[in-house]
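Sorry, any thoughts here?
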Amino acid sequence: MRTIFTALLFSLAFALPSLAQDTTGANATATDPTTTILIARTGLRTDAPYIGTYHCFEVFQLRGKWIYPDVGYIDFATNNYREIFVGAGRTLYDGERLMVAEELYYTQAVGPAAKSAKYLQPYTLIKIHFTRKFSNETVYFPYLPLNNPARVQHVLERSKLEYALNEAWKVGAGYAGYKYGDDQWQNKPIITTTVSTKRGGAFEFWLQEMPGGGQIQVRYTLVHVGKK
């Protein structure tokens, strides 16, 4: 699954990203160390011929409440369409039970099928901690066209409820959805398992229903906290 700005709406992902995002909150100061986060994701159809669905790579930094730079790449397992994106944003609120972050991306589509489409993508992340172990995370962003080849799109990337079994393991379930132009809304429910390591990053596994079948996703996140 996105060339100038990052972060709209709904529910909770995996352990290390959650901890890292929280460092941008209300208690962060200008003296806080810069945190660098690397994200790598891929997917595979669960139905024959078991082809890939996407590849995504992203790197961004948390500087107090600010999120910049944020750069990334996504393709959909084809050679004719890719997206390159860059963005920046800010944590708007970070309380004990609620965190809201907003970013703005500029996205450039490339490849024979892209027709040089350009987009702005306002991105919203919302996290809710109901209890110490039970939480929710929602990520929503639209594609807002900047030229004629581009089409309006809506992506509810995830809205998840998660339960922490212990420090290393989480399980969850939720909903995702997508709409392209005037096409019908696509429903994509998910179940998730996340395992976090102390130094090797966090690995999140999705089993997701898709139109005409399903997919397995592997989502990896590595966090590096710089020195003060």
